[in-house]
Design the sequence.
């Protein structure tokens, strides 16, 4: 499947974000982010390890019980909010990594699939001698996290599912509006005009107006993904059957975090999933699809409260 309007409308915001970064750089903006106060730019050195048929780039930050973070579509591990990572790693051993073919992780000739991404994650955990961990998935990373919990329940302690949905197809999935799809796929105008349209989808317009200069502090990918790998990820999501009819089989406690103004993956998707998983929390924070960058301290506190709560 090519980069279709369907895929862009639902999960393609990360490639849009990457394009925005480089269009900004081309227009003269600094490529080095001005990090918010309290954030850190290079918390640890990236390493690599063999997992199955690929070499996986990863970073370990902090000490304690493991918390594995799975990135979204076309994103790299550099794109997590630095203040969020700083706060989480003060309580847990945080493991960041690049998905197959992204950033500092290699790929092979095997067709990409969500199920293969699950096996890559398990392979990394095996290589790092992690028997069980909390799992945090972001957008496409929620697809991987839920499949991981279903296929390898003994490896998952608690789930955090941020800006996710249970699938692509069927009446259960709440999709972006035609206007949002149009803006996401509109490549007309200058680079500056395209950037403005895309940023206004990622973040609420009023919030951006109230926080001038905010975009200069967004983290940038140190190793931008190749278009070939992005297309292969797109194909993987297009063939994924979803878990909408299997959500009740997730036995682990799950926290859903969604932005009340998310127009890319509407918050109703998280409400639907939370209603079908027996032991779940649902937190709706202000902001859009990328509200992790808007409220990183609040975001981290929600996650830490959930992970620290006693299981029922």
Sequence:
């Amino acid at each position: 499947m090519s980069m279709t309007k369907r895929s862009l409308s639902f999960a393609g915001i990360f490639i849009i974000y990457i394009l925005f970064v480089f269009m900004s750089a081309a227009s003269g903006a600094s490529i080095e982010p001005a990090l918010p106060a309290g954030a850190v730019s290079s918390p640890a050195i990236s390493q690599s390890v063999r997992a199955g048929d690929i070499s996986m780039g990863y970073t370990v930050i902090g000490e304690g019980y493991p918390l594995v973070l799975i990135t979204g579509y076309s994103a790299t591990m550099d794109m997590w909010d630095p203040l969020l990572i700083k706060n989480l790693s003060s309580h847990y051993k945080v493991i960041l990594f690049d998905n197959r073919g992204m950033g500092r992780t290699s790929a092979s000739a095997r067709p990409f699939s969500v199920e293969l991404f699950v096996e890559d994650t398990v392979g990394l955990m095996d290589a790092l001698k992690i028997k069980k961990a909390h799992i945090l998935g972001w957008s496409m990373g929620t697809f991987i996290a839920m499949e991981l919990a279903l296929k390898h329940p003994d490896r998952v302690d608690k789930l955090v599912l941020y800006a996710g949905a249970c699938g692509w197809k069927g009446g259960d999935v709440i999709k972006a509006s035609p206007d949002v799809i149009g803006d996401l796929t509109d490549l007309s105008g200058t680079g500056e005009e395209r950037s403005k349209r895309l940023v206004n989808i990622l973040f609420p317009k009023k919030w951006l107006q109230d926080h001038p200069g905010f975009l200069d502090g967004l983290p940038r990918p140190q190793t931008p993904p190749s278009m070939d790998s992005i297309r292969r990820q797109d194909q993987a999501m297009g063939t994924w059957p979803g878990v909408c009819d299997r959500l009740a089989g997730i036995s682990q406690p799950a926290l859903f975090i969604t932005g009340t103004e998310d127009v890319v993956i509407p918050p109703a998707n998280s409400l639907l999933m939370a209603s079908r998983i027996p032991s779940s929390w649902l937190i709706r924070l202000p902001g859009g699809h990328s509200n992790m960058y808007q409220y990183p301290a609040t975001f981290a506190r929600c996650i830490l409260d959930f992970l620290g709560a006693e299981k029922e």
Q: What stands out?
A: The radius of gyration is 18 Å. The first strand starts at residue 47 and ends at 51. Strands lie at 47-51, 54-61, 66-70, 93-97, 133-138, 156-162, 254-259, 280-285. Residues 1-43 have pLDDT under 50 and may be disordered.
